[in-house]
Amino acid sequence: MEGPVPGQDTMPTDTEPSNTIKLLHLVFLSTSWGMQIWVTFVAGFVMGSHLPRHTYGFIQRELFPYYFHIGSACAFLNLTLFAMYHPSELLSDEQTTQIIVFFVCVAASVLNTQWFGQVTSDIVADMHLVERSHGLGQEVGLFTSKSCWQLHASNSSYRQLSRQLTLYRALSSLCNLCCIACNGLSLYYLAAHLSAL
Hints:
Helix content is about 75%, strand content about 0%. It is mainly α and about 200 residues long.
């Protein structure tokens, strides 16, 4: 019967993941990062520039829950896969940093999924109700119309909603940018460890 020899330390070994696990890790990471880049830097600006504000807001309210949930799932799966194949006893400083980056990405994604994203969508829906009651919301473009600024100046509840929206949109954007940075760092880590293309 084979086993550890008495007196020898039995340290866990860093096992090499299968190609399937490597592929899954790469798929989750690239899916999340690609989706984040597209939604943040392309789709948002294009739709915001060409659709009526309320239509754009409605699309965001419908799509963002999927966006946030997919991002959270990918972040969690990336952390899990990486941690499974890098025992804490054997982590190098670089691998420890990578675990921390994955953890920060999970935390920021979950904050956006469970709180900031949902609150932002709810505030936008409330603002749209007020705007619609004043005949506003069909303007095209990213910038608020003069009529909306007048409503902001004359309606205290709308002004309060606007302040809340600014706060939660900023927090949501900060979490989103944090996830983009984390996934970019993770992609850099993977690229630095490729032995060939």
